[in-house]
Amino acid sequence: MAANKEESDPDDFLTNEEELEKALCVLAGSDPENCSYSRGYVKRQAVFACNTCTPNAAEPAGICLACANKCHDGHDIFELYTKRNFRCDCGNSKFQDFQCQLNTAKDEENVRNLYNHNFNGCYCTCDRPYPDTDDQDNDEMIQCVVCEDWFHSRHLGCTIVEPEELQEMVCEACMNKAPFLWMYAAHFAVPPAISVRQAEEEEEVDVEEGGEKNESSEPSQSGEPSTSVEHTKQEEVANRSSPCKRTHEQMTGSPGKAMTKTVACKLKELQARGLERPRQGAVFWPYSWRSELCTCTSCKRAYVAAEVQFLMDQSDTVLAYENKGLDEPFGQHPLMALTSSMDRVQQLEVIYGFNELTTSITAFLDRCVAEGKTVTVEAVHQFFEELRARKRRRTNAGYQ
């Protein structure tokens, strides 16, 4: 084990640590004790689905972190990462006779909740589960920031270069749902991926064919942008420079200058420049891209009509939510060091188990205090035996 650890790639260790940190932040940013229903449609929270209580695909339902821990202990649970503007369904009409243990005063249905096939444990355009035991490719999955579905990188309709540097992704279907985003993509998104070698070969061909093409690649005196390979490479460098370094506004989720009122329509100004990109495949954006969106009255109406008005809110991002989790002590827990060698599924299992253990121990001690009982060795042994019994029930339920 020691030899393997010494020979491991430091970059892989850092990647695992970053992934675990994000997983911790997903939990730390949500309340594990109190049902989130009373807070209304929460801007962003960790959401789960219970396949034991709501297996019908025609009636999807989602539950908050606290209900997943307390009301659905031992059930077959799907982890959905985070969802925006969601209200906990636990115990409403979709659960029939099942009652929420944390909050019984709930409406029959949360009409503003949005559901997709994720709530039935399926993802991507291929409609497959995750983890998928039949998938031999072990492909990375990436979440669209608009529909919040997860996609295999091979099903995004575009070539992905250096995925660890990619920040926010909008799938092709959501781009077409809000077609004005294609114009912003031409100016601010990561350019359609081509290899550096391919770009250099194309540039050499242009030079060999004659100086006319090379001269045409220079920016015009009027300041109009060029569509040459050289200009595309320059834009890519500008858009992707220091991808791992984030500004204070980006780290805190503060809108900064992004929310200042604009007079002229920025979208029309971009359209006047004439720069376009192919309208196909998913689009990857730097973290700062939302600050480039126009906020004039006409554009705001377009966002509402396309149901993407949340793009104007910098605090809507998963990054802002994760930063909130980083502020919590759990986000810096030494558990991270113990699970760095695990894959993501194992890491999440450990995290959820740790979170459940912490919650259960707290409840056990509170109950002893309330009943005036002394915490004896026998009581502790019985407590852990009950935990093991619940774990066995959960494991059995997962394989049924």
UniProtKB/TrEMBL annotation:
<feature type="region of interest" description="Disordered">
    <location>
        <begin position="199"/>
        <end position="258"/>
    </location>
</feature>
<feature type="zinc finger region" description="UBR-type">
    <location>
        <begin position="33"/>
        <end position="105"/>
    </location>
</feature>
<keyword id="KW-0863">Zinc-finger</keyword>
<comment type="pathway">
    <text>Protein modification; protein ubiquitination.</text>
</comment>
<dbReference type="InterPro" id="IPR011011">
    <property type="entry name" value="Znf_FYVE_PHD"/>
</dbReference>
<dbReference type="GO" id="GO:0005737">
    <property type="term" value="C:cytoplasm"/>
</dbReference>
<keyword id="KW-0597">Phosphoprotein</keyword>
<dbReference type="InterPro" id="IPR040204">
    <property type="entry name" value="UBR7"/>
</dbReference>
<keyword id="KW-0832">Ubl conjugation</keyword>
<keyword id="KW-0833">Ubl conjugation pathway</keyword>
<feature type="domain" description="UBR-type">
    <location>
        <begin position="33"/>
        <end position="105"/>
    </location>
</feature>
<keyword id="KW-0808">Transferase</keyword>
<comment type="function">
    <text>E3 ubiquitin-protein ligase which is a component of the N-end rule pathway. Recognizes and binds to proteins bearing specific N-terminal residues that are destabilizing according to the N-end rule, leading to their ubiquitination and subsequent degradation.</text>
</comment>
<dbReference type="InterPro" id="IPR003126">
    <property type="entry name" value="Znf_UBR"/>
</dbReference>
<dbReference type="GO" id="GO:0061630">
    <property type="term" value="F:ubiquitin protein ligase activity"/>
</dbReference>
<protein>
    <recommendedName>
        <fullName>Putative E3 ubiquitin-protein ligase UBR7</fullName>
        <ecNumber>2.3.2.27</ecNumber>
    </recommendedName>
</protein>
<dbReference type="InterPro" id="IPR047506">
    <property type="entry name" value="UBR7-like_UBR-box"/>
</dbReference>
<dbReference type="GO" id="GO:0008270">
    <property type="term" value="F:zinc ion binding"/>
</dbReference>
<feature type="compositionally biased region" description="Acidic residues">
    <location>
        <begin position="200"/>
        <end position="209"/>
    </location>
</feature>
<keyword id="KW-0862">Zinc</keyword>
<keyword id="KW-0479">Metal-binding</keyword>
<feature type="compositionally biased region" description="Low complexity">
    <location>
        <begin position="217"/>
        <end position="228"/>
    </location>
</feature>
<keyword id="KW-1017">Isopeptide bond</keyword>
<dbReference type="InterPro" id="IPR013083">
    <property type="entry name" value="Znf_RING/FYVE/PHD"/>
</dbReference>
<dbReference type="Pfam" id="PF02207">
    <property type="entry name" value="zf-UBR"/>
</dbReference>
